[in-house]
From TrEMBL:
The chain crosses the membrane at residues 16-35, 55-78, 99-117, 145-166, 178-198, 210-237. The keyword Transmembrane applies. Keywords: Membrane, Transmembrane, Transmembrane helix. It comes from the Bacteria. It comes from Streptosporangium album. This is Uncharacterized protein.
Length: 328
């Protein structure tokens, strides 16, 4: 059946959906500032007055870089799987059909560079599943090509993946890290089982249920990541006092010739006169504490390809002022 048969009954006059696209990022930005202000309206207005929108948009864009590949590949897999299993069209099939091949390929490349090491087997599983289902759809009578793409290729990739990832897999099992162990071992082994149709009766509930769950949970996942993204530089200011110096650690909101405005990590806003300022230092962003030390030749499973390949800064001792202690 030609691909046009799948999209001929596509609904029209849905351009109004495009107007909703800017709303979600704007809501995330406002919620991020609301979270940083500890739900205080006056602090929120102060942040809105001084924070650059580019800093807020960068957090949303960086999050989108790793969310979009999952949505594109997941939608393509579910839509094509439902089509070859039932031969019937639906909104999911139409959405998958409207994703060009170059968009899917670009999603794989973006995911390869932005996803963490522990998620790369899942990326390989999705990529092989998309390829296998596409071959079954485009070449319905070429069983020889099916055998190569749908069976031989996933098995080969799985074997090579286990060989390459074995040091990280062994470390994860030795550390009793169940989640990382499953992420490094299961996806590539399941790829060979996902390149064929599913029974016709549960196909709609399975594919459309997963797609609906993705649509509902993705905004909450993106929001949770953006809520923790830094939007202001973390500074340590050493202030002169009558008896001994005092260190104020917080996020620098604004600074001019006379006054510096600092948002403390407890949500309290402090206005510091510059004549009391002895010194200040930019504190490092420690980020999240690693949940596991499993690594592949120094490439930790919580690192992406980009962060692993980027030159690491030389190790320097932590300034005592960043820990709230005055520096002599």
């Amino acid at each position: 059946m030609k691909s046009t048969a799948r999209v001929k009954d596509a609904p029209r006059n849905q351009e109004w959906l495009l107007t909703l696209l800017p709303i979600f990022p704007l809501v995330l930005l406002v919620m991020r500032l609301w979270y940083a202000s500890r739900q205080d309206t006056q602090t929120l207005l102060l942040l809105l007055q001084n924070i650059s929108p580019l800093g807020l948009l960068s957090a949303v864009l960086l999050t989108t870089l790793w969310v979009l590949p999952a949505l594109i590949l997941g939608g393509r897999v579910l839509g094509t799987l439902y089509w070859i299993s039932t031969g019937r069209s639906s909104w999911l099939v139409r959405a998958a059909e409207r994703l060009p091949g170059w968009v899917v390929a670009l999603a794989v490349v973006v995911g390869l560079f932005t996803w963490q090491l522990r998620f790369l087997p899942t990326l390989a599983m999705l990529s092989l599943t998309v390829l296998g289902l596409t071959v079954r759809d485009r070449f319905p009578r070429n069983e020889g090509l099916w055998a190569v793409v749908c069976y031989a290729l996933p098995v080969t990739v799985a074997v090579l993946s286990y060989i390459v990832l074995w040091p990280a897999i062994g470390t994860a099992f030795a550390a009793h890290d169940v989640a990382t162990s499953l992420l490094l071992t299961l996806p590539q082994g399941l790829a060979v089982l996902l390149t064929g149709p599913v029974p016709r009766v549960p196909a709609r509930g399975l594919t459309h249920g997963i797609a609906a769950a993705m649509a509902v949970l993705t905004p909450f996942l993106v929001g949770a990541v953006v809520m923790k993204a830094p939007i202001l530089p973390l500074m340590a200011l050493q202030l002169s006092e009558d008896e001994r110096p005092r260190v104020l650690v917080g996020y620098l909101v604004a600074s001019d010739d006379q006054m510096s405005t600092v948002l403390g990590r407890d949500g309290v806003v402090s206005f510091v006169r510059n004549d009391r300022l002895e010194s200040k230092v930019l504190c490092p962003d420690f980020g999240e504490v690693p949940r596991t030390w499993a690594n592949l030749y120094g490439w930790y499973v919580e690192q992406s390809v980009v962060s692993w390949l980027a030159p690491a800064p030389p190790p320097t001792p932590v300034d005592p002022r960043c820990q709230g202690r005055p520096k002599d």
